[in-house]
Amino acid sequence: MSGNHLYVYGVVEAEDLELDVEGVEGASPVRTVDHRTLSAVVTDIDDMEPERTDENAQAHDRVLRAVLDHEGGRTVVPMQFGMTFKGARELKNVLRSGRRAFTKALRDVDGGVERGVKLVADEGVDLDPERVEAEVAEWLDGLAVESVANDRYSDRLVLNRSYLVLREETEAFETAVDDLEDVYDGVTVKQSGPFAPYSFVDIRIGAQ
C-alpha cells in the first residue's frame, strides 16, 4: 500500500531499516526517514487521521515489536498512535527540532524494553497494596532500570506497575515475577510484554 503521507511508529538511532511487517491501515513495508543521527520508523499512508481500531492499534504495536526484535534488538522511542505527517520535509523538521530530546530519550531507555506486572487478589483475599508495593519493589527493582505505578482500576488489583528491563535481565526478571506466586497466597500474577518503553519516555509532538 502506498500513500501521500507518513505514519510514524517511533524513533531509533540513524539506521536504514526496511522490515517486512504490516503496519497501520495495512501499509508495508516499514522503512525509515533519516535526519542526521536519528531515523523515524514509518509507513506510507493515505489518511492523515487513521482510525484507532483494534486492528490498527495492534498493527502499531506489531511494528514497534518488530523494531525491538530486529537483528538482536533495537532501542526505540515509541510514538503514540496517530502521529502522521504530510511528508518527509515536515517529519525531518520535527526530528531536527526535537533532536536533543529524542537523543536523551534513546540514551535513557538504551537496551531496555517495557514489562508489565499485575497482582490480582482472589475473591475474599485482603492485602494491603502499600505493603505489597514495598515488598515487590525489594523483590524486582534490582532487576529493572526503573519502574512506574499504573492505575489500580479494580479493588482486587493489588499491584499494577511497568518496569524498564534490560534485555540481558529479561530471563531473570521473568523468573522473579513468576516466583511472586509463591510469596503471596491467593494472588494471581500476570506479566506482559516486552513492549516498546512507552511509560519511560515523555516526548509529545503533534501530527503535521
Automatic annotation (TrEMBL):
Q: Where is the signal peptide?
A: none
**What keywords appear on the UniProt entry?**
Gas vesicle
Q: Name one GO cellular component term.
A: gas vesicle
Q: What is its main location?
A: other
Localisation = Gas vesicle
InterPro entries, alphabetically? Answer: GvpL/GvpF
Give TM segment ranges: none
Instruction: Tell me its family.
Output: Belongs to the gas vesicle GvpF/GvpL family.
The protein here is known as GvpL/GvpF family gas vesicle protein
Query: Which organism was this protein described from?
Result: Halobium salinum
Q: What is the lineage of its organism?
A: Archaea, Methanobacteriati, Methanobacteriota, Stenosarchaea group, Halobacteria
